[in-house]
Amino acid sequence: MSLQIFRSKHVTSDDDTGSGLKRCLSKWDLAFLGIGAIIGTGIFVLTGVAAATQSGPAVILSFVVAGLACAFAALSYAELSASVGGCGSAYGYSYVAFGEIFAFMIGWDLLLEYSLAVATVANGWSGYFNNALTAIGIPLPEMLTKAPKLGGLINLPASAIILILMLLLIMGVKHSAKVNNAMVFVKLLTITVFIAVAVFNVHPENWHPFMPYGWFQTLPDGKTAGVLAGASLVFFAYVGFDAVSTAAEEASNPQRDLPFGIVTSLGFCTVIYILVSGLLTGVVNYTDLNVSSPVAHALNLLGYNWASALISTGVIAGLTTVMLVLYYGLTRIIFAMSRDGLLSPFFGEVNPKTQTPVRVIVLSGIIMAIAAGFIPLGDLAELVNIGTLAAFVLVCLGVLVLRITKPDMKRPFRSPFSPLFPVLGMLSCTALMAFLPALTWLRFVIWLVIGLIVYFSYSVQHSELAKKDW
After folding, report:
1. CB atoms within 10 A of CB 33
2. pLDDT tens digits for 184-196?
3. Dihedrals φ, ψ of 145, to 5°?
4. How far apart are CA 95 and CA 399, in angstroms?
5. By the 8 A CB rule, do 14 and 248 touch?
6. What is the rounded radius of gyration, in angstroms, for the C-alpha atoms of the chain?
7. Looking at per-residue confidence, does 13 or 235 come out higher?
8. I want to staple 451 with a disulfide (CB 3.0 to 4.6 A). Which of 108, 196, 276, 447 is the partner?
9. What is the spatial distance between Cα 87 and Cα 84, in angstroms, rounded to a whole number?
10. Contacts of residue 454, Cβ cutoff 8 Å, sequence gap at least 6
11. In angstroms, rounded to a whole number, what is the distance separating the alpha carbons of residues 239 and 383?
12. Are 211 and 40 in contact (CB under 8 A)?
């Protein structure tokens, strides 16, 4: 048993697994998947909150610091997605680099990260959707927009949007990619309009003082502030680019296209975040930005009263693509774990007509729709953050391990300046984890313990590797 749990998979670089999934995604489809996952509430909400409460105008530097941490991780993802292959993202890479038990645990971690992220974002989507309905005079009854614990009956829009995305994913990944591309266009158009308006209304005096909280300090109430504290907050505006790597078995040319999709989407979004945060703090004093929709607030202060409708449209489109891409990533990770025997083979079936794992899509969709409709997720959303960072750390470590244990492995893309960049990725993501509350760590550990119970009671005996003589 002790050696079995460390058994590892061979590299399947172009993934000749005969998975039944359809290879139809171009490199630009993958890049737009990444942009769809990254640009959500971060661009419309987090920029203002971080500026007002933690960084001031230096929120620009917070985005640079967080973007660098993500860049190191993204380069590691790009190397492993091109060389190791498979649709399981960090789960699949860990299976090759560290062995089965580590792979299962990071896969288990990703299940929590992706499913909670979708349910949490659905709650945010519901709020903006109801605001839009209210603006045109047809608000939903309050009992249909709140979970029972908050005095309602069900958060109906939150459940409904997940079920709609479920139907879209069942139809096929190319259909989903087309819808994602259209929604990405809408939100980029929204951002472009903001930039075009704001650039002519900048008042440089708003950028002084540039760093009111310095690099880092602890305030009298125990909260942290400064550029680095702001970086730990805005980091989560970048979460999602890793979902691109779950599309390996549906990419037309995964070894070439996955690195392009990952690096391009992250680089583009970093530039957008820096531009928007710089303009936002230039048109309005940073102390006025601690509101639920700071971009719309800034445009309203400039006298553009159509801003609220515009920003609501952008946010609704933005959150829809975030849910779509993360939901997609979740189903592909479950599919990969099932195919490897670590989860029930029930989840490993591909529908021959749609060439999608319909069983996984339906079951996970129903569970997430129930969670979004009936549970106020609140602090549980922080589990998304810690799970993401843990995955990033392991992927960076995986690059280092495989450079040593498999030096002759074909690497169509190599993370530059190795081992420096992977090490910096590990250190920066670990440092950002340190900013998370102790309660989040406790919940994370409890989830991992549950995962260990599942692994030793089922997975270790049913693993496909156990049936083969490697």
Report:
1. 32
2. 888 888 888 888 8
3. -120, 5
4. 13
5. no
6. 22
7. 235
8. 108
9. 10
10. 108
11. 13
12. no
Both tokens of residue 380? Answer: 């549980």
| Tally of CA atoms within 13 A in the half-sphere of 337 that contains its CB | 31
Report which of 176, 233, 315 is spatially closest to residue 48, judged by C-alpha positions: 233
- Give the pairing type, strands 224-225 and 217-218: antiparallel
CA nearest neighbour of 45 among 386, 433, 372, 312: 312
- Reading the block at residue 316, the tokens are 């609704």
Distance CA 113, CA 167 (A): 22
Only one residue has tokens 């009936």, namely: 374
Distance of CA 94 to the CA centre of its chain: 19
Residue 190 CB contacts under 8 Å (≥ 6 apart), including other chains: 310, 311, 313, 314, 317
Q: How far is the C-alpha of 362 from the C-alpha of 398, rounded, in Å?
A: 32
What letters, b where the CB count within 10 A reaches 16 and e where it falls short, cover 422-442? bbbbbebbeebbebbeeebee
User: Helix/strand/coil (H, E, C) string of the chain?
Assistant: CCCHHHCCCCCCCCCCCCCCCCCCECHHHHHHHHHHHHCCHHHHHHHHHHHHHHHHHHHHHHHHHHHHHHHHHHHHHHHHHHHCCCCCCHHHHHHHHCCHHHHHHHHHHHHHHHHHHHHHHHHHHHHHHHHHHHHCCCCCCHHHECCHHHCCCCEHHHHHHHHHHHHHHHHCHHHHHHHHHHHHHHHHHHHHHHHHHHCCCCCHHHHCCCCCCCCCEECCCCCEECHHHHHHHHHHHCCCHHHHHHHHHHECCHHHHHHHHHHHHHHHHHHHHHHHHHHHHHHCCHHHCCCCCHHHHHHHHCCCCCHHHHHHHHHHHHHHHHHHHHHHHHHHHHHHHHHCCCCCHHHHCCECCCCECHHHHHHHHHHHHHHHHHCCCHHHHHHHHHHHHHHHHHHHHHHHHHHHHCCCCCCCCCCCCCCHHHHHHHHHHHHHHCCCCHHHHHHHHHHHHHHHHHHHHHHHHHCHHHHCCC
Whole-number Å distance between alpha carbons of 36 and 40: 8
17 touches 249 (CB < 8 A)? yes
- pTM beyond 0.90: the answer is no
**Token couple for 252:** 């037309």
Tell me the C-alpha distance between 469 and 338, whole Å: 20
Could you give phi then psi for residue 383, rounded to 5 degrees?
Answer: -65, -30
Residues 6+ apart with CB under 8 A from 135: 308, 309, 312
Q: How far apart are CA 318 and CA 194, in angstroms?
A: 15
What's the rounded Cα separation, in Å, for the pair 247 and 328? 9
Query: 231-282: per-residue pLDDT in tens?
Result: 877 777 777 777 777 777 777 777 778 888 888 988 898 899 899 889 988 9
Contact between 66 and 82 under an 8 Å Cβ cutoff? The reply is no
